[in-house]
Amino acid sequence: MSQAAFGIDFGGTGIKGAPVDLTAGDFAAERVRITTPQPATPDAVATVFAELLSHFPEATGAVGVTVPAVVRHGVVSSAANIDPSWIGTDADALLTKATGREVHVVNDADAAGLAEVAYGAARGQRGLVVVTTLGTGIGSALVHDGVLVPNSELGHLEIDGHDAESRAANSARESEALSWEEWAVRLTRYYAVVEALLSPDLFVVGGGVSKEADEFLPLLDLQTPIVPATLRNRAGVVGAALHASRAD
Fold first, then answer.
1. Residues 32, 67: one domain?
2. What pTM was computed for the model?
3. 3-state secondary structure string, 115-150?
4. Are residues 37 and 13 in the same domain?
5. d(Cα 67, Cα 77) in Å, to the nearest integer?
6. What tens digit of pLDDT does each residue of 194-237 get?
């Protein structure tokens, strides 16, 4: 196993983890999934992480964990999609103590961005890459020449008087029964605003809907190239492991 680290993707319904081969940018063993405890308090989740790691006694490298929240130097600062008790928690310290392993926490969209730039759709791309995940909300990651600018939260830009993700996330498409063409109009508006603010070299679009990228990406009218993500549901685990290896 070459340059192995361990990645854990902490989601609302499931916690998934696997050792990651950082040379190949892929799982080094089959992923394990454990149902997220309810309520998903820091202590309850830490117990699950310890259980998950026990499935891989030979994986002794650094551990990276995605969290659907703003993370500053290991401390969780928001809780839009996780238990409010996470706010103010030094997750790096808590999880390191609970698991007996060196743990480094990263925002989930940032982890996906790192993975796509290192191993996926943006591999070899110089300059500024903006990775977005279109799902319940819009997650975002900014990576410049391989270096992450964390916690961008571009899904919460105010555009035309609305929180951007309330209009352009995939959940809005589904709840409003929008056609691909109707949704593409909203996506074009969203990405055009990001384009005007940041002048990126490449957009990468992730999230489950990226599997159907051919239905909507060709409809977008942008100056910046825009491509679908390639790691998909592996991106969180892979990106978390990569983050941990760099932090460690």
1. yes
2. 0.94
3. HHHHHCCCCCCCCEEEEEEECCCEEEEEEECCEEEC
4. yes
5. 11
6. 999 999 999 999 999 999 999 999 999 999 999 999 998 899 99
